[in-house]
Amino acid sequence: MERKLRILLVDDHAIVREGVSALINGQHDMEVIGQTSDGKTAIEQVQSCKPDIVIMDISMPGMNGIQLTTRIHEMCPNTLVLALTRHTDSTYAQQIIQAGAQGYLLKQAAAKDLIVAIHTLAQGGVYLDSAVASRLLNNGSRQTSGAATEQALSERETEVIRMIALGYSNKEIAAELNLSIKTIDTYKARAQEKLQLYTRAALVRYALERGWLGND
Questions:
Q1: N or C: where does the chain have the smaller number of CB atoms within 10 Å of the terminal CB?
Q2: CB 206 within 8 A of CB 197
């Protein structure tokens, strides 16, 4: 029998935890192993339970989600973090990903998007809510510049890597840039080889460090 993904919920609103828990426990390949309303207790549960994924709010009393993510990343680097929040300000997304999170989803999203986000993280990817990704893309486009020459990336390679970091699929990038999927694959492979970065999470952090994703 395939092992289920073990998930910890951290949110100071009980009704949110109950709703998310019911949704997750209704899936065949994942389960909620614990839930709490504050960062201090969450740290204790992460240490004792070693969940695969922590789904957390950002705004919480005491320790906020960004601070908690930093602690989790330090204590249990194999535990993944998905922010589930109402904040549409892309600054929050940028900060929590820099702290070590692998995903950012708005509470306004559809239930199916949460399941997709969980699966994306479990498969080694990074998930950004499309609304936030669009804002980052619009703001970040003004900042894409000669910084790419640090690693000898071409302008098109930089553009492709930035869009990958924003959560766009190769198919979506191809449509946006009016290129074939095969061409996007080629640009991606060349850029990853130059940068020696082979996961989406690594590309996200690289893009954030260079300001390619913009600020609100």
A1: N
A2: yes
C-alpha–C-alpha distance, residues 17 and 37, integer Å: 9
pLDDT, one tens digit per residue, over 57-95 is 998 888 899 999 999 988 998 999 999 999 888 788 888
User: Tokens representing 183?
Assistant: 């061409």
Contact 209, 102 (CB under 8 A): no
Measured CA to CA, the distance from residue 13 to residue 36 in angstroms comes to: 9
Q: Give the span between the Cα atoms of 216 and 92, in whole angstroms.
A: 9
Residue with tokens 């692998």: 102
Provide the H-helix boundaries in 50-199. Answer: 65-75, 90-98, 111-122, 130-140, 155-165, 170-177, 181-195
Question: Which of helix, strand or coil describes residue 56?
Answer: strand
User: Each residue of 190-207: pLDDT tens digit?
Assistant: 998 888 887 777 788 788
Q: What token pair was written down for 128?
A: 């950004």
**Cα 192 to chain centroid, rounded:** 19
Termini Cα distance of the chain: 46
Residue 50 phi, psi (nearest 5)? 50, 60
Which residue, chain included where needed, has tokens 């207790």? 41
**Number of neighbours of residue 127 by Cβ within 10 angstroms:** 23
CB atoms within 10 A of CB 134: 15
Residue from 151, 154, 138 nearest 212 by CA = 138
